[in-house]
Amino acid sequence: MSKGGPLTDEEVAAVVKTPDPATDDFIFQQTMYRIKDPKASLAFYTGVLGMRLLKKLDFPEMKFSLYFLGFVAASAIPEDEKERTRWCFSQPATLELTHNWGTEVEDGPSPYHNGNSDPRGFGHIGIMVPDVDKACERFEELGVDFVKKPNDGKMKGLAFIKDPDNYWIEILNCNNMSKSI
C-alpha cells in the first residue's frame, strides 16, 4: 500500500475473509444517534424521510428513551408489545434515536457531534430513493437543510441533507451510483 493511498485489489483480497458459518444468522440491526429533541427528530424521520416508528422504549430509572425507526409497511408491525419488541430487534438496518431526557429544553444547538468536523469520525447514513432530484425538490419544499445538492460538486446525482441534530444523510439512487463508477 502506498502511503496515504487506497489499498490495492490484492491487499483487499488478502484481508477480506470469507464469513464464518457461525455468523450466518447475524444481521446489521441498528445505527444509533443521540438526539436533542425527540419531537423534532421523529417528525423529520417519519414526515420527511418516510420511516415508521417501530418501537419506543422508556427507561425512567436511567432517564432516557429509545425510538427505533425503519422502512417497513405499517401492516408488518405487530400490535402485541412483546412480539413488537422481538420483531423490532430482528429487523435489519433500523435507526435508533436515543433521547437523554432534558436535552430538549437546553438552549442552543444539538450538543452532539456529527463526526463531520474535527475530530472526524462517523460520517453519515445513506437513504436510497427512486429519484434523487424529485426527493430533493420535496426536501427543499419542506425546508430541509442541505450539505450538498444533487448537481453540486464533483459527485453528481447524490445529495447530503441534515437532520435536526445536524447528522448528515446521503440521498442516493442505486442506478446513479452504478453509472458513476
Brief account:
The chain is α/β, with parallel strands linked by helices and 181 residues long. It has helices at 9-15, 38-48, 81-88, 132-141, 174-180, and strands spanning 30-35, 52-59, 64-70, 94-100, 124-128, 145-148, 159-162, 168-172.
Q: Please identify the structural class as seen in this structure.
A: alpha/beta
Number of helices: 5
Categorize the overall geometry. globular
Query: Over the alpha carbons, how many angstroms does the gyration radius reach?
Result: 19 Å
| Through-space gap between termini | 22 Å
Helix content: 10-25%
Question: How much of the sequence is in beta strands?
Answer: 25-35%
Arithmetic mean of pLDDT? 95
The biggest beta sheet is recorded as: 4 strands, mixed
List keywords for this structure.
alpha/beta, 181 residues
Question: What report would you give on this structure?
Answer:
With 181 residues, the protein is of the alpha/beta class. Helices cover 24% and strands 25% of the residues. A four-stranded mixed sheet has the order 1-4-3-2, sandwiched between helices. Strands 5-8-7-6 form a four-stranded mixed sheet. The chain has helices at residues 9-15, 38-48, 81-88, 132-141, 174-180; strands at 30-35, 52-59, 64-70, 94-100, 124-128, 145-148, 159-162, 168-172. Strand 7 and strand 8 (168-172) form a beta hairpin. The chain contains five helices and eight strands.
Layout of secondary structure:
Layout: H1 9-15, E1 30-35, H2 38-48, E2 52-59, E3 64-70, H3 81-88, E4 94-100, E5 124-128, H4 132-141, E6 145-148, E7 159-162, E8 168-172, H5 174-180
Parallel strand pairs: 1-4, 5-8
Antiparallel strand pairs: 2-3, 3-4, 6-7, 7-8
